[in-house]
Structures are given as structure tokens and as C-alpha cells.
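User: New here, any thoughts?
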Amino acid sequence: MSERRSTLIALGEGVYTVPEVARILKRNGVTESKVRYWLEKRLLGEPIRWGSRGRPHLLSFQQLLKVRTIQRLRDDGFSLQRITPAVRKLSSYLWEHLFAEEWHALTFFHAERGHIGVMDSQKRAIVVETGQWIMPETLQELEGYLRQTHEEWVRREVDIKGFSRLVSNARVLGGSPTIRGTRVQTSFLAYMTEGLGADEVLDMYPRLDREAVNQAVEFESQQPLAA
């Protein structure tokens, strides 16, 4: 009974397997192996459920955003392999702000010895080693990215990069990818289109348009990167 209670999921929080996270974030550069590695390194916190043979890990919408943020930190020059403790320190600080009730704007700045500092609007700050020099404009872009991520957390909805009509909304069908503004799953739409053709599907769903159908089919045809 206690094990069952430990895996209950709050309504509106979403639930994702590792392959689903990798599929949604594929065009952000995320792979299944990265997600599993970051889980093992405890960079994502405790999942909804740890998996085992034949039993997948289950992650929350918050952890999906954590995965995407860590990938963004890597892209911006925070070397995860070399300085995992520093990234853990930074990510812990960021999670406190990204998933807070109220947004406190974050400002990045260059500190001594090539380190990077980040300060919130309450003048609390930390400094971490990055592993390489980071251009000032990159830090400004990161500030905007974090503000956007907080807004996505509040909405419980994340855009799927490269597919302007598709989203993952934790409050809709557990976060399964859908057409924006609807409850129509991309997997269902792609399946129907394969069997019936786009024209007949559009007749059945007049609220949809051809671009939404095409994006659903393309998204469902892609496979997550393996490494």
C-alpha cells in the first residue's frame, strides 16, 4: 500500500517516461542516455518512480523542464562532465527560482578566475566554475530563457521545438503531446492520418488545419536520438 501511495501523481502535473522526455526534447539536443545519466547523477531530483527491468522510470513535468534547462546550460558552456558538482550547485539554485510561486529575475555575471555568478532580485547570489569562457550575450540569453521557463512552469505547458502547433501540457492527457489548444493527441492524429488520409481526418476534425496534421505526422515519425 505504501508503495502505491508513493507513485500517485497529482492531477495536472503530468507523467513522462524517459523515451517520452527525449522525444519531446529531441530538437533541444536531449537524448535518452542523457536523461538516464542525469537521473543517476541526481541532477533531476527524485523521479515520480524509479524504474527497473520492464518497469520504466516516471518523470514529472518539472523534471522535463529540468532536463531541458541542464541541456541549455551545457549548450551555453557549463561543462557537465568536468564539473558536475558545480552544475549541481547551480541547478539546485535555479530550481529554487524556476519553480517558485513568484518569479525573482535572475542576472548572470562574470566573476573572478573565469567563474560565473548568478544573482536574484533579492540580491542572493552564487558563483560556479563553468569550465570555459562564456560570452556576455550568452548569459543575457540565458536570463531570458529562464524567465520563459518559469512562465512555462506556471502554465504547465512547454512548446515542442520545431513544431509550432504542438505542445506538451501537463494538465492535458498527462502531458502527452497534443495539438496546441486541443485535447487531440499527436499519436492518435498520426495514426488516423496514416489509415484514412489527411483530407478525411480534416473533415472529421474541422477545428484542425492541414499544418497541424502534417506536424503531428512528422513528429510521430521521428525517433529520439540514441546517444
Confidence is low (pLDDT under 50) at residues 1-6.
